[in-house]
Every structure is written in structure tokens, then in C-alpha cells.
Amino acid sequence: MPSSALRTVPHSADVVIIGGGVMGAGTAFHLAEAGVRNIVVLERGDLGCGSSGKPIGGVRAQFSDPLNIELGHRSLHAYRNFRARPGADIRLDTVGYLFLLTAEEQVAVFESAVGVQNGLGVPSRMIGPREAQQLCPWLSTDGLVAAAYSPTDGHARPGLVVRGYAKAAADAGVTFATHTEVTGIDTAGTRVARVHTSNGAIACGTVICAAGAWSRQIGDMVGVSLPVRPVRRQLAFSAPLVPPAPRIPFTIDFSSTAYFHNSDDGLLFGLADPDQPEGFDTTWTPEWLELYRAVVRRRAPALAGLETVGGWAGLYENTPDHNALIGRSGELDNFLYATGFSGHGFLQAPAVGEVMRDLYLERRPFADIGPFSADRFRTGAETRPEAHVV
Q1: Could you tell me how far CA 278 lies from the centroid of its own chain?
Q2: What span, in angstroms and rounded, lies between the C-alpha atoms of 138 and 379?
Q3: Cβ distance 347 to 72 under 8 Å?
Q4: What is the full DSSP assignment across 306-339?
Q5: Parallel, antiparallel, or unpaired for β 12-18 and 125-127?
Q6: Distance, CA of 279 to CA of 316 (rounded, Å)
Q7: Residue 377 in contact with residue 99, Cβ under 8 Å?
Q8: For residue 24, which phi and psi values (nearest 5 degrees)?
Q9: What is the pLDDT of residues 130-159, one digit of tens each?
Q10: How far apart are CA 160 and CA 175, in angstroms?
Q11: pTM of whole model > 0.85?
Q12: Alpha helices in the chain (DSSP H)
């Protein structure tokens, strides 16, 4: 991966991107591909070491909000073509997403969403418990009312995506300054003027905040409210299975948020702890695994007893309505942001990279991202909470 711990950063840049995860690297790639030069990406650790390094890798277009559907659908297309552009194998496995529903109220929400998805070109459909079990033999159908399934969803390897974007961007002249922490930002009037880092200051034409769970602090440096709060999410891996696990969809028990999918010779599984407090703690705890086993014992009993060989914890970057913050600051003309994806950043990154390119070039993006402006929480604008949240 192109990554250099610079003793000093360049004295100036046309674009400074704060955050070297999938959003920052993807944005850098799309800008460089469009001919933008003199781009610097700042990352306080190694590339992909934040939220991008530890997600579950799911890619999907199954959402309730039309804008999330569009971002996911367009990103799926980009991921399918990633080997050609930018040119990397990301181990994409198009196994589909399977949402398991245990209440009629859930069925009504998902049926409505499937209609919207279909209208936007997503081939999702509602199915019954028996077909769900055929797709995923681990399942118990007890209490299962229905399921929503889209065969074009799946999962990929986030680290490979970050490296693929970063290599192509570096080959096009982008500077990646790792182990470089942003310590302050100067403004002049209605514009950002300079970014201060642990390795020097950079005079800049535009700043793009793609700092994930740490974006609130970046916004605070310039007086822009980015209401992002970090919340720990944990996952685990089973030992290799003999005989091998069947190839299954990315399966989610919607009521409990328990999920699992194939990973190498075993399974990856996780669960969102509803009692998890906010904070930057990424310690993996065995107690969480017992919580997962207690939940999954009802929906896929055989999984509860599988031997595990480790796990990890990462951070969701949550906003109040679980929708992203994407846009240009109303207070600072040259401060742009792409953050707060609430667990959906990896799967939306290619499309968001396009959007950030177009915002910088003052072109109309492929979709109206106005509803995701950070100003919606300050002005009292209507929000559209995302229902398909895990």
C-alpha cells in the first residue's frame, strides 16, 4: 500500500483530504482520475487503520431510503468492476443479502422498501421462511415470518479496496502522509486557509473531511457541526469448518441484528450490542461473544456451539438518523465532508467518491445528496431515518 510517514508534509496542496480510510482513498482516486493534481491525504495512523480496517465487508443496495439505495446500487456496480477500475482483486463474493423478519411490522417496512428498490433497478424480493432456509441451511424457521433477499448484494475485503484505491491514486500523483495527525485548521473569512499537522502545515485550496468516527473533532476545529458519535461494534471468526460451510448469503436476523456469512474456511459473525455506550474503545471482549451465542441459538442453533478463533472490534460512526453527512459546508466555501455513514461507509464508498469529485469540481452529482447535508440537524430540516440499520 502506498503509505509514507513523511518527516514534513508538502507546504501547499490544492486539496487536503483528512482520513486515509476507504472514503479518503476513494475520494482521492476519483479526484486524481478526473485530472485534479496536488492532492494530499492525511492519516494519523496507517491507511485503513480506522473504521475501514474493521468492518464486516458487506455490500448491498437493500435500504429504505431512496438515496441510500442509489448510493449502494451504484457502488455495487463499481465493486463488480473494481478489477478493471482502479485495478485490484477485492475478493468480491456476490452471495446476496438475506434479511430475516420475525414480525408483521417488519414485513410491511421491508415490502415497502423492496418496491422502492425495484423501482431503482435493485432485484430484491420478499420470500418465505422455507426459501430462506434453502438459501441458508443453518436457519431455524421457528418464528420466522418472511425474509427479504437481493441476489446481487454480497461482501468484499475492505483492506483490499483501500489498497486498490490508494495505489491507483498514488500512481496518479496523490501524496499519502501517514502517521500525520491534524492538530488544527486555520480559516480566513469564509474559507479554510491552512491545515496544521504533527509534521508541518499545509496551505490549501480545499479541505475534505473523511475522518470517520473522528470527524466531529475536525469539524470543531473550523466551527462546522458534524454530529458523528463513535460506537463499538464487535465480530468473531469461527474455526475452519469440516466439511466446509455451504455458500450462503450475508444473513441478518433483523430483530436481534445477529449476522453471519462465509469467511475463508469458516464463518464471520457479529451482533450490535444495544447496550454499547458511545466511545472510542475498540477492545474485543469475550463477554460479547456470549451475548451473540445467546441470540443466535434461537435463529441458527448450530452456530452457537462453533469454536471461535478470534475476533475484533471496530467503530461505527453514527449520526442521529443513521444517515451519512455528505456535502459542502454552508459556512466555509472550501470545506467538504463525507462522514457519519453509521456502518454503511464501505458499501457506499465508490459512489460517494464520485459525489465528492463532482462537488469539488462544482458539477451536478448523479444523485441529489442535499438531504444528507450536515445542516439538516441545525436548521430543523426534515430527516429520513434509515430503517435497514444493523
Answers
A1: 18
A2: 47
A3: yes
A4: --EEEEEEEEEEE-TTS--EEEE-SS-TTEEEEE
A5: unpaired
A6: 10
A7: no
A8: -65, -45
A9: 999 999 999 999 999 999 999 999 999 999
A10: 19
A11: yes
A12: 22-33, 66-80, 104-119, 129-135, 158-171, 215-222, 286-299, 345-360, 376-379
